[in-house]
Amino acid sequence: MELGAYLAVSAVLFVLGMAMAAARRSLIYVLMGLELILNAANINLVAFARFKPEIGLDGQIGAIFVIILAAAEAAIGLAIVLNVYSRFGTIRPDDIDELRQ
Amino acid sequence: MPADFFVLLLAVPLLPLAAWLLQLGLGRRRPRLSAGLGLLAVTASAAVAIWLYRQAAAAPVDFIWSSAASGGMSWNWLASSGVQDSGLGAFRAGLRFDALSAPLLLMVCAVSAMVHLYSTRSMRGDSRYGAYFAGLSLFTFAMLAMLVSDNLLFLFIFWELMGVCSWFLIGHDSFDRQRPRQVAARAAVKALLTTRVGDLALLLGIASLWQHFGTLEFGQLYQAVAEARGDLGQWPPWLWTTGLLIVLGALGKSAQFPLHVWLPDAMAGPTPVSAMIHAATMVAAGVYLVARSFPLFTPGVLTMLALLGAFSALLAALMALCTFDLKKVLAYSTISQLGYMIAAVGVGSPEAGLFHVFTHGMFKAGLFLGAGAVIHACHHQQDLRHLGGLRRRLPLTAITMLIFCLAIAGVPWLSGYYSKDAILAAAVAGTEQGGLAGWVPPIFLLLTAALTSLYMFRLYFLTFAGEARSDHAAAARENPMAMSAPLAVLALLSFGGAALWLAPPESAAASHGIAQLLAVIAALLGIAVAVLLYLLNWGNPARIAAALGPFYRAARARFGIDEFYRAVLVQPLRGLARAWVRFDRAVVDRAFEHAGRVALAAGQRLRRLQTGRIQDYLYLSYAGMLLAALFFLGRTA
Asked: Which residues pair with B383 in a beta bridge?
């Protein structure tokens, strides 16, 4: 398969993640959207590492770093969501607007 | 001199400073302990001063122990590469001790200790007892530190510190939470501002000396002036202005005409503070400054000093004669006596001037503490017209006050006699130069001598002789020991204190006898008139006052000098300040308010962007990403 196909899948995944993070009406889905964005990036990294041998292992290592990062992000994100729920009684992002003056 | 010596010299001012630091923390919670600490520290200083004095007494009269010269106890101050590069070298500060400062240190410590002891009792019940003693400690520290400084800059620093302390202590009663006294606040500000005029001049004078000579150490300054005179064959012309500026500084601090107006008002402070200011600290600093700067003064400056001092002496003596407030009579007498000292420096005898500072410190502190005892015993009655007959009710105060009055009048064999005599001898010797400037000082000073004994005994007889003229005076009772003991000690010092002076000024042999005779005649004449008028009631003072008419009224009104300043300086300045306030409100404030309003309005519009919803922010960041992407695409294309 061509590199372009991988990049296409990655781009679709990225846009889907962006849309999800911005438009879903639950913080859990917003977090899932963020995961999609990160994994889109992972596909890119691994694909480039596979098709451009001169990069060496850098791509794979980058992907592993992103996975670690995503795990940490998910843990913190879910903790935030839990706290938000106990504080506001909801996890609809539209209802949480206390930052407004 | 060994370094230990200078350690002890440094301890004299540092002990009260240490007490002050402790008092800062203790003052409010443990007022009695704070008072005890102050008394202890200043007594310890006095003990060290006595030891130092004994060293000085054993040395030849013209000794100068300088810590810089002996290689110890001097410091580079504000040493920076910039100063060294300018070729002037770092500023060195050290200690200096000589036959002039030794007795003065002793006097300041003794008077301060007596004032402390007296205050422990007389200030009892004051709501700010602890703070009061902290102020006294700092005041004492500043004066002692000034006396041991070996350069003009440090002298100036402690000089200013004294100004602050005087503000604090004169205004003591205005800080009272329950019953603040506005008079005290106004008097304190007046004292601070009036002396500030002189202080500014002094600072300019010091700057000018630094600019021309690159040093402020006394010994080096004297040498530099001598060299400059040698090179030019005459006085450097700029030294005239510089001398004038220094003199102006001393006039402010020593309350001499035309900057004398603050001192009578400063009576609003507690009486022991007046004793401190008038005897040991503050006013003595001015005379000390001109005496130390004496070699820097050109003949013109000295003549002016002599004339101003003599004029102030006479002017204040006249005002004292027409005053009925017990403390204010003493205040004018201080101005008058300081006039003597300043004039002494002017006629070429700084030693005689400091000699009078030394003796005057003791009996004037006694006079103020005695007056305080009278006022304390008579429930704050201090109008001479409402006192009287107190010799039976306050026997100890009456006897000690009599000694102080005799001393200040210059009656033979009391301390004031010797110092006044030295000044008059110097003044009479000055007439050899002839001219008006030569004759005015001795004549004015002799007149003042007669007036001094007249107004002092007027005060004495009106207070202690005759019958009580008010209920308070009739009910007075002798004060406790803590207030009487200092009077006794100071009376003793007023008797024999003159013998403690180390550097007897060379008596101008020819004029000495005449001066002595004239001084004694003047003193006795004044006392005789006072006895006739106020003890035997032979004449009616009120009728004499009426006969003098406008002159008497002018003296009562302080010769209109306060009013003149009010009209010429205070009112225009107030007007200017008011105009400036109006400009400030109308233009400056308005501009800032407008700027604020614009920012506020813009903020109100922009706040709509801030919805507080994270997803809206996310959209915004997408927009940002898009812009960034477009930007980079554009660059690669």
From this structure: B325
B271 is written with which tokens?
């009486």
Q: Which two tokens stand for residue B317?
A: 């003596």
Q: Which residues of B touch A40 (CB under 8 A)?
A: none
CATH of the domain at A51: 1.10.287.3510
For chain B, which residues lie within 8 Å of any Cβ of chain A, measuring from their own Cβ?
A: 607, 610-615, 618-619, 622
DSSP state of B505: P
Averaged pLDDT, B212-231? 84
H helices, E strands: number in chain B? 28, 4
Q: Quick one: average pLDDT of B605-633?
A: 87
Q: Taking CB atoms and an 8 Å limit, are B615 and A94 in contact across chains?
A: yes
Instruction: Give the residue on A whose Cα is nearest the Cα of B613.
Output: A97
Distance between B593 CA and the closest CA of chain A, angstroms: 23
A54 in a domain, yes or no?
Answer: yes
Region B118-143: mean pLDDT is 86
Measured between CA atoms, how close is A21 to chain B, in angstroms?
8
Distance from CA of A85 to the nearest CA of B (A): 15
Taking an 8 Å cut-off on Cβ atoms, the answer to whether A22 and B613 are in contact is: no
State how many domains chain A has: 1
Q: Is residue A101 part of a domain?
A: no
3-state secondary structure B507-534: CCHHHHHHHHHHHHHHHHHHHHHHHHHH
A24 within some domain: yes
The residue segments making up the domain with residue A21 are 3-95
Note the ipTM here: 0.83
Q: How many Cβ atoms sit within 10 Å of the Cβ of residue B557?
A: 13
Provide, as residue numbers in chain B, all residues whose Cβ is less than 8 Å from the Cβ of A18: 622
What is the reported pLDDT for B79?
59
Mutate to test the interface with B, among A28, A96, A98, A100 (most CBs of B within 10 A): A100
The answer to the question of residue A59 being in a domain is yes
Query: In this structure, what token pair is assigned to residue B404?
Result: 């102080």
CB within 8 Å of chain B, chain A residues 52-81: none
Closest Cα partner for B377 from B273, B472, B267? B472
Distance from CA of A99 to the nearest CA of B (A): 4
Closest-approach residue (CA) in chain B for A26: B615
Residue B151, helix vs strand vs coil: strand
pLDDT score of B72? 60
pTM of the shown model:
0.77
H or E, element range at B76: strand B75-77
- The pLDDT score that the predictor gives to residue B626 is 92
pLDDT tens readout for residues B564-580: 888 888 888 899 999 99
SS3 B98: strand
- Average pLDDT score over chain B: 84
Asked whether A43 and A6 are in contact (CB, 8 A), the reply is yes
Task: Tell me which chain A residue has its CA closest to the CA of residue B615.
Answer: A22
